[in-house]
Amino acid sequence: MKHILRAAVMAVLIWAQPMAALAAELRGPVTNLPMPRFVSLKASEANARRGPSTAHRIDWVYRLRDMPLRVTAEYEHWRRVEDAEGKGGWMHYALLSGVRTALVTEAMTALRSHPTPEGRTMAYLEAGVVARLTQCEPDWCRLQVEGNRGWAPKSALWGVEAAEVFD
Fold it and tell me: Could you list the residue ranges that cross the membrane (predicted)?
């Protein structure tokens, strides 16, 4: 019985390793960039369409410049995106920017001087504020918004993956 259980565990481990590697290496077929990935809205108004062409009907009109969006698919010059609520559609790539931004999801999020709960409070951010991401550590991200700079807990933001770290 122990041998059967050990063999089953080994089979799962052997199968899981290539699947994890495959997920980590998922790349867009057009750009060869990681998928999914976050981008921001370059325009002050942009249409999200039902399919990847101007012949498809418009499902959403976004009117918040710099809004973070998650790219989930690529087709020629089109990117399928979704917002923090999971809504979205296909957008022409010219409407999107690689500049990283985040949406504050928790009301009165403290922007701190250091990436710790003890850091001095620089400002409070309302839910719905869009801020520029300049750096992310395991639990905190450095933001820039309307002349204010500081750190916010990653858990209070949408537009960055939980495990994502960058300078």
Answer: none
